[in-house]
Amino acid sequence: MWTYLTQPFTFTLPGFEAAELEPWRENGEQWRRLRVVWPGYLASLNTVLTIYVGDDGLIRREDYDVEIMGSSAGAHYMSDCTQIAGIMLPTGHRILPRTPEGQALTEPLLISIELSEITFA
């Protein structure tokens, strides 16, 4: 959860690489996309991910291949943002399988996480 809750701030650390990709259309919205490569010194389930950002600047989706699980392709949707100490955080997380073309499948739901009682210490 650390990586989910610290993005996009984590991407400013040394060694991260980022490049903007072509926009993506989904559910009647157009999202900007950013390809991010993690540095080797930080532990992560994956080294490359694609971030999808809405017009409001909030992360809507994150695609990655879980390398420790044979590079299983996942589409991680983030929702229900709440403001905590002036920072917007998504409290709803749903991870679905993803096709090689980037389309998220509607089932099976792989992971569902609902966060509450979040504080910064």
Describe the structure.
The protein has 121 residues and is mainly β. The protein has a single domain, classed as Clam (outer membrane lipoprotein receptor (LolB), chain A). It is 4% helix and 50% strand. The chain is built from 1 helix and 7 strands; from the N terminus they run H-E-E-E-E-E-E-E. Strands 1-2-3-4-5-6-7 form a 7-stranded antiparallel β-sheet, with no helix packed on it. A hairpin with a 2-residue loop joins strand 1 and strand 2. The longest helix has 5 residues, at 2-6. It is globular. The model has no long low-confidence stretch (mean pLDDT 90).
* CATH class designation: Mainly Beta
Q: Rounded to an integer, what's the Rg over CA atoms?
A: 14 Å
CATH superfamily: Lipoprotein localisation LolA/LolB/LppX
Helix-strand string: HEEEEEEE
Question: What would CATH call the architecture?
Answer: Clam
What's the helix count?
A: 1
Q: Please give the share of residues in helix.
A: under 10%
**Whole-Å distance between the termini?**
16 Å
Q: What is the CATH third-level topology name? A: outer membrane lipoprotein receptor (LolB), chain A
Please list the strands of the largest sheet in the order they lie side by side: 1-2-3-4-5-6-7
| Shape estimate | globular
- Mean pLDDT comes to 90
How many DSSP-defined strands?
7
Characteristic key phrases:
single chain; 121 residues; mainly beta; outer membrane lipoprotein receptor (LolB), chain A; seven-stranded antiparallel sheet; 1 helix; globular
What is this structure, in a nutshell?
The protein is mainly β and 121 residues long. 4% of the residues lie in helices and 50% in strands.
